[in-house]
Amino acid sequence: MLRHFPDTTHRYPHKKRDYVIALFTFCCVAICLITDATASIEKQQALGVCGWIFLVCLLAGENREVRTQVVIAIIFATIGEHFASPYMQGYTYRFGNVPAYVPPGHGMVYLTAVALARSGLFLNYARTIAIFVVLVCGVWSVWGVSSLPEQGDSVGALLYCVFLGYLFKGRSPMVYLAAFFITTWLELIGTYEGTWKWAAIDPVLQLPQGNPPSGVAAWYCLVDAVAIGGAPYVFKSWQQLQLLMVKVGKKKNDIIQN
Questions:
Q1: Is there a contact between 194 and 142 (Cβ–Cβ < 8 Å)?
Q2: What angle separates helix 126-145 from helix 154-169, to the nearest 10 degrees?
Q3: Distance of CA 125 to the CA centre of its chain
């Protein structure tokens, strides 16, 4: 089950950039969501512009693979946001829209998960962090299905099981571990401030869900998995397109010469 976890006999170096990305994103998330709690639609749009600027700056130091993954994550997550929120009403933002800062925000969140996943802290203490996450999220899920909370959370318990599948069966467990921290952070702040609210009854499963669901990180792990898995296909398609363009160019030259 832990075959995709880092080698425990190797000591991994700490890189300052990874921690700077994480700290910057955690701070930006808090500031953005607290600001949006009382912001006008115009301020939402301004936050979106800032989000794109910050994301572009952060990606400047990344390689082509990570950049491609971020683009895929943004596209997939944005489509999912419009489907799950305005259409399905699984959760709703203050203005009933998908705020302008959400697409670049997903890019920053994904990049943060990648940065933490490759950091010396997470690689050197992967199993300890995994135990912590499993226990904390597990207690949260059990609490959600008990009679204690005002709003039940059966959906959260199901998502927690899905999250465990990602963590112990997925090929990128460190990214999923890191995703738990940044996504839990933003979900707790966003729901507490009233920036968005999860429906008491999930519109698809017709089961009670918390605000936020305890296993909400599983949804973000899906975005991460699509980004990681989709990047190689994008590269392959781009290479095939380049080869096709070269062949077309050669044929045009042959025609001209003849």
A1: no
A2: 160
A3: 22
Greatest alpha-carbon pair distance for the chain in Å reads 83
Q: How far is CA 143 from each of CA 18, 188, 193, 196, 213, rounded to the nearest angstrom?
A: 33, 16, 22, 22, 11
Note whether 106 and 224 are within 8 A (CB).
no
Q: Is 92 helix (H, G, I), strand (E, B) or coil?
A: strand
Q: Is 249 exposed, middle or buried (0-12, 13-18, 19+ CB in 10 A)?
A: exposed
Q: What single DSSP character describes residue 3?
A: T
Among residues 224, 228, 226, 187, which one has the least CA distance to residue 209? 187
Contacts of 6 (CB under 8 A, 6+ apart): 12, 123, 124, 126, 174
Length of the chain: 258
Task: Give the separation between CA 166 and CA 214, rounded to whole angstroms.
Answer: 15
Residues ≥6 apart with Cβ < 8 Å to 11: 124
Digit-coded pLDDT (tens) for 14-23: 999 999 999 9
At 121, the amino acid letter reads L
Tally Cβ neighbours within 10 Å of residue 19.
15
Which residue, chain included where needed, has tokens 């062949």?
A: 247
197 class by beta-carbon count within 10 Å (0-12 exposed, 13-18 middle, 19+ buried): middle
Cis-peptide, bond into residue 212, ω within 30° of zero? yes
- The two structure tokens encoding residue 77: 């997550």
pTM as predicted: 0.92
Least-confidence region, from 45-49, 143-147, 230-234, 243-247: 243-247
Structure confidence by residue, pLDDT tens digits, 189-247: 999 999 999 999 999 999 999 999 999 999 999 999 999 999 888 888 878 888 878 77
